[in-house]
Specification:
Helix content is about 35%, strand content about 20%. It has four domains: about 90 residues, Uridine Diphospho-n-acetylenolpyruvylglucosamine Reductase, domain 2 (2-Layer Sandwich); about 120 residues, Uridine Diphospho-n-acetylenolpyruvylglucosamine Reductase, domain 3, CATH 3.30.465; about 110 residues, Alpha-Beta Plaits (2-Layer Sandwich); about 90 residues, 2-Layer Sandwich (Alpha-Beta Plaits), CATH 3.30.70. It contains 17 helices and 18 strands. A hairpin with a 4-residue loop joins strand 5 and strand 6. The strands form four sheets. Strands 15-12-14-13-17-18-16 form a seven-stranded antiparallel beta sheet, sandwiched between helices. A five-stranded antiparallel beta sheet has the order 5-6-10-8-9. The protein starts with 9 loop residues before the first helix and ends in a 13-residue tail after the last helix. It is α+β, with helices and mostly antiparallel strands and about 475 residues long.
Amino acid sequence: MTMTTGRVAPDRVDATLGELRSVLRPDQISTAGAVRDQHGIDEGLFAGVAPDAVVFARSTEDVVAAVRACAAHGTPLVPFGAGTSLEGHIAALAGGISLDLGGMDRVLEVNVDDLDCRVQAGVHRVALNDTLRRDGLFFPIDPGADATIGGMASTRASGTNAVRYGTMRDNVLGLTVVLADGRVVRTGTRARKSAAGYDLTRLFVGAEGTLGVITEVALRLHGLPEAMSAAVCGFPTVADAVRTTIETVQLGIPVARIELLDAVQVAACNAYSDLGLAERPMLFLEFHGNPAAVADQAQQVGALARANGGDDWSWTGDEAERNRLWKARHDAYYAALALRPGCRGMPTDVCVPISRLAGCIEETRRDLDDAGVVAPIVGHVGDGNFHVIFLVHPDRPAELDQVKALNDRLVQRALSMGGTCTGEHGIGYGKMAHLRAKHGEAVDVMATLKAALDPAGLFNPGKITG
């Protein structure tokens, strides 16, 4: 899968780099082929496109310098975090500069009493939680990959904890953003509510680097739970597992995670992570709170599971066993890849109202099986979001065409059920056509916002709205 657009003229890039060499250190600019290639491709199946050069920012001032140089010479600029996105977000479709913010990795402040912090955009999720743990705090958004906080804000990431703690949209309090003309704006407030003006924070959260470059992020934090426990349970059908999930949510049981693995994915995880689970639809769950509350939550959900055919409910407060279970869940993508060695993965995602989730998954599973395609399904079912991990042989174009058709049907199925073409992966350039199907003329409004904030179209061109 590829997309091409006209590349910027080499003399513009040369002029941009010449200006930047006068204000940045030599080691902050690279035109090495391997470095450029690394910064033009993410972890999805979509074809990468290398930038003409990579600039490594160390501060907001460095970002301002890079943006102003690019604006002066008409050079495209693509922000880069960790490269863990999946929909072609970082491909330099028009060439230009990849602006790597990974060196902006400082935790600037932690306000324990107010349960918030401020970090540079290049801070990685795991490193942040290592720092916060000393104060008994944690940041709950967990997309699986060890992404940067700026990248997570840019893609509006979520993950396994979203059913209880929400997504990045709910946990970003404010941003520092460099606009296309080099101005620095600060959005949001540490106060828990405000009615002052437009909500610019949420405009930039999920904009995928097309409206501005995020350099700092203020985050909502949570206290580390006194106790945690994990549970696992198999079901006769996906519908039984989803029914248990729906009843759990409807009863207001504050479960922290509810993850569904279909039988194909369970088999993959058994082989890859040595789990030894029955190969049928399976729920992985986690509960947070004090010991009594955790035990009560587990007992309530266990009763619901048994009423829906889950006859092998088991739960544990053992930290090692809980970590083993969730490591296997986070390794599900690599477990899926191991089902077809030599293939590449194309993980896609949709999200539907939870009442339509079982039907959507079951129809999708039938479609995949009828096509003879090996493609496990995993889902953050507490909020109606699930992923199909397509496995495609890179030397067989017919397979890619087949998978594209299956994915198109998956998206149309989700849209027809009142859902969305992506729950957390974002649009990049991989799902631009689906965005129009989802939002219709509202995409034109998005394009108007893009033109207002980035009239020259230099920020991450060719993404989201084209």
